[in-house]
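Structure, all two chains, one model.
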Amino acid sequence: MITESLVLSAILFVIGTFGVLVRRNAIIMFLCIELQLNAVNLSLVAFSRMWGIEGQLFVFFVMTVAAAEAAVGLAIIISIFRHYETVNVDSFNLLKW
Amino acid sequence: MSILFYVFAGLAIGGAVGVVMAKSPVGSLLFMVTTLAAMAGTFVLLEAHFLAAIQIIVYAGAIMVLFLFVIMLLNLGHDYQKDLRGGAFAVLSFGVIGGIAGLLARQLGATGSLSGPGAGAIDAAIAEHGALGAIAEPLYTTYVVPFEITGILLLVAIVGALVLAKREV
């Protein structure tokens, strides 16, 4: 069960990484980052079956940070959208040389 | 038990692929809710009942609704343009994820079947304190300082989100 969960976690993390790399829509990239966070949560829960309840506490903290990150990240996306009228990350090239 | 795990795993992976491949952001979001619900199921199978409930309430409920609100607010629901990067970049991405997947598979294959003292300890704690008490007891004793700092983090996040998102007056 633990090994299967770790494999599932690895697969989900890889899919999330792929999503961040290939999508251009900032909101979907953000969703994929959430997917990566969730994959790590799953592996922490699986490891807590090996080493004790601390893994689950860690997941609790990760979820809190993810909620904070979602709020701030979406605020940044809204504020960028006001300037550029798009969420396509290819348009945000001010820092590109 | 095992069958149920594979059902949830299939749902989670299918949903994750849907998140990456869906054309519209709303479709992506609904696939993400599927993935989160399936992962809550695997949490239950791993005896993390409190986290499964939190996963549904906070993640699938609150955070996904926040995303949906932003999509609605920015009127991106009709954004059906194809936005997958093509060509060399996709090949490079496949290389990167192939590398990560290979490393993970190698590591997991080397360790074989995993077990440890945690399962017994958690089952004993759940039997003694209940599913909620098992996680609450260490949270409010040993880890009470990080827990309080979490409150400060949320406050800062609220203020930061307001400052970033409000219109300049």
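Residues 82-114 of chain B form one domain.
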